[in-house]
Every structure is written in structure tokens, then in C-alpha cells.
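Entry:
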Amino acid sequence: MFLKLIHSIVHKLYKLSIKNLIVRKKDKYIKAFILNKLLRLNMETLDILDYKIPITFTKNKPVIFNLNGIKIINSNLHRRHLKNFDPTFHNEAKKISKYFKDSSEKIIIDLGANEGEISIFFAKKFNCNVFAVECAEKNLHFLNKNIKLNNVKNIQVFKYAISDKNDLILNVNFKSNETQVLKKNELVSSSENELVKSITLSNFIKSQNINFIDFLKIDIENSNYLVSDCIFKNSRIIKSLIWEIGFYDSENFKLVISKLSKIFDFYLFNNNDLSKISVDEILLKIQKGVNVNSSGFDLFMFNKDHYENGDIII
């Protein structure tokens, strides 16, 4: 409530300044003075917030964020601003990119592509084909705009809700920071809802004739766990993946991680580098920090059959 009040006051003061500017537009000195103060106010605000993401303001065009070389149009995705405090990594894909040491063509699947910052980063920086899967229409709108803005041609976009069953008609409850996929009859009042067809990861892989996956990203909120069986069934062709462990019961995640530990090694990011972690440590972390209401943490997994001289090379 307090933040909303502050926002309202600042917004009204800003509009008042603009109205003064319009009323006195014939006076070029007043106009110049107000413009200068407004620009300084914006810069001082960013400085106070210690905001590190480069921003481009252009008249009559949307605000553009530069996320480690990837241009992203401003939207209502508040979550992006949580990542601005790292002076080096504004895009999570950049952390992974240091392990892309093999120049051969790669296949990347991005489940929960959102507005495209990870898909576009890989498509632009590496020799790869990217399959970007997103269920929310608003996210898809910005995803396609951002692909065009960055002039990348090697991304295919698909509108699906990833689930553990095919051909369900599911309800997508859109929020700016979190998009949930619910059963068709579970409409959420005072939210934006749309119906989307479901597909399993296994069926998607088959439909696209994908024989090997170099990197798989899974960030699909309350559907994160539902892809677990498909990860196991396709583990032979998955070289590496990063999986959001959250928004589900911890005991279910613990069981599937124990099962997958025979095939994958587990890593967490520590100071922007991957650090190997034991199965017991992962299970304890899940026990302490994962539940149906928590986003949990991102777990990097590397197939034990694909190390090169003991190194992770994607």
C-alpha cells in the first residue's frame, strides 16, 4: 500500500510537470528548464536505485533494455528489475554461455521462454537452433517483437502449455511476474485468463524430430515438476539443462532427483560459476526451501556421459 501511494504521488508530480510544459510550450526557456529537470530526475532515480542495466530512451519508441547485448522492450515484467544489481550479468544466459566452448551447431529448448531474453541471447551469440515455448499471449507478443528487434532468424516460437499430458485445454492465469497453468475450470477472478493447449516435453521433442538436446531450460512456474518424467525418459539425448526446482511439493522433487542422480551430476551457481553439489546436499536444499508457493532455486544438471576430460562443455 505504501509503495502504491509513493507511486501515485510521483506519477501526479510528473504529470503536473508535463502539463506545465505543454501550457508554456511557447516559452522555450521554461520548456528547456522543465525538460532538463525531468531528465535529471530520471537519472538521479536510477542512480539512487543503483540501477545497472543499460537503458535506451527514444522519442515515440518503447524503452529498450540492453541485457548483455540483447535488446528487450520494456513491459510490465517487474521481475527483470530484480536482476539489475549485478554489474556483469544482466541476462541469466550469460552465466551459462561460458560453458558453450564447442563451436558445433547446437539444439536449445527454452520451456517458459517468456519475453525471450534467454532464447535470443543463445540465438544471437551461438551457432544454434532455438525452440522457444511459451503459453501466455502477452509474453508471446513481446517475445516476437524482441526477436524482430534483435534480427535473429534461428528461433522457432511455439504456443503451448507444457504439462504431463497432451492435448489438454488448460487455463493460463497471466501475471506480470508469474504465469500459472491451471485446469480449465480453475478460473482466477480479477486476473487475465486464456485457454491454451498442452503438450508434454516428450511429444514436443518427437513432433520437432529432435534427436539431441545440447541445452534445455525449464522455468514454467507451477508446471515445473510435471516435466520430470519426460526428463527421465529423454535423458539419453539431453546433454545439459537448468531446471527451476519449485512451486511443487518437496517430497515429489526429492524422489525424482534421486532417480535422476544416476544419469546427471548436479550444480548450483556460486559467484556466477557452477559448483558441483552432492545428491544429499540437493535433497536437503529441496527439503528446506521448496514448496508449492515458492520459486525454489535453479538447478543445473549435466549428463555424466558427456564430460570432456572431466570438463563441462556444452
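The chain has two domains: 2-80, 93-162+200-306.
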